[in-house]
């Protein structure tokens, strides 16, 4: 795979605007661990290697366990996630797969039971932002650091 475009340099104002929203999400008061799970789960669904590389590393640095990261793709079958995390993950899947899901009432009711109205908006914004980053990274074929290292080793 080769990178299509270095989007940071092509539109720095656009990237700065999206970074501003990302910074808001990171400081909005939602738990860091929960936000990283949301970012990882959306990135799994969207097949974004760059974002998966970044957010699994960030989650580990913040103390997330390997087991919870590995089982995230099957969170519905695991007891390792809290009701609040489960509601956030269901909402993440519903909004990431919006054309298929239609954002079901059951998923919203779970979010409503676990999150205040402000937190519901912040969580929804967090899901929107990671989906935006995923689409940019996948669309422009952003190469994640491990691929860069591997290509450099092959070239040497």
Automatic annotation (TrEMBL):
Pfam families: CMD (PF02627)
Domain Carboxymuconolactone decarboxylase-like: from-to ranges: 12-94
Name of this chain's protein: AhpD family alkylhydroperoxidase
Organism name: Kaistia dalseonensis
């Amino acid at each position: 795979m080769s990178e299509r475009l270095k989007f940071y340099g092509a539109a720095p104002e656009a990237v700065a605007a999206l970074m501003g929203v990302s910074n808001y999400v990171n400081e909005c008061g939602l738990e860091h661990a929960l936000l990283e799970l949301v970012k990882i789960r959306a990135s799994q669904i969207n097949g974004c290697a760059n974002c998966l590389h970044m957010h699994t590393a960030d989650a580990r640095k913040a103390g997330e366990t390997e087991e919870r990261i590995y089982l995230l793709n099957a969170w519905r079958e695991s007891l390792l996630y809290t009701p609040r995390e489960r509601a956030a993950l269901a909402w993440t899947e519903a909004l990431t797969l919006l054309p298929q899901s239609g954002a079901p009432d059951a998923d919203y009711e779970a979010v409503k039971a676990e999150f205040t109205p402000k937190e519901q908006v912040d969580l929804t914004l967090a899901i929107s932002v990671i989906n935006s980053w995923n689409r940019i990274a996948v669309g422009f074929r952003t190469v994640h650091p491990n691929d860069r290292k591997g290509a450099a080793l092959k070239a040497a």
